[in-house]
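Give me the 3D structure for GST N-terminal domain-containing protein.
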Amino acid sequence: MQAPKLAVSTCSRTALSISPRIAHRASSNMASAAAPKYDVVVKGDPEAKKLGDCPFTQRVLITLANKGIEYDQTYVDFARKPDWLMQVSGGKVPVIRQSEKGLNMPDSDVIVEYLEKEHPNPSMKSSAPAELGASFFPTFINFVKAPAEDKDATSKMEAELQAINDYLSKEGNGPLMGGANIDAKDASLAPKLYHACVACKAIKGFDIPEKYKAIKTYFDTLSSKPGWKQTLPVDGDSVIEAGWKAKVASGWSH
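Predicted structure for GST N-terminal domain-containing protein (254 residues):
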């Protein structure tokens, strides 16, 4: 079996081992020269140096970008996961590594908490309630896999979307979860919600932004934010759509 190829990248895309490491800053105007260099292990195409479709990885990349923290990316082909990744995280991404501290940390929840502690400025603490969207992702997975006649899955998905839409339109400080700037709730929920928008339209014919106008405005606002744009999959919606179609066809569950 051929050894898996990896790639180390600069914020958006890059290559490992066979390619020189290229230093990259999440934001050239914000990153400090004294900041530690992190390596983020991501799902992607090592040959083409393209970031893949993982909302949990995007959460971490958004956090790094918005804090102006310098980082590289190591791409892993999920068809050929290396043994070291299986040992560290069971084959899951993201993982962040930092050689100076011997850091080898999986789990996006743990990673963003660590980054907030180590790099408190600018703070990404959110004023949005913790329960907002807490069950959205499993509800979405159940809905996108369910047959059309499963009314319970549909009603639960609509209830989740309505709660998010209501918060954005009535309760939040808007236009994002905590106001004008991306915060921790945005970093966590927006990638999952974006995957749902793409997958539900492609697989179910359900256009979320068309029905939920505050969610549409939310993504219109996010699209102007560098921390959002630079952390999306390189091939955009097509790779997200293909990924979810494959998951549904295989009976995948998170």
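The chain has two domains: 6-118, 136-250. Let me know if you want a second pass.
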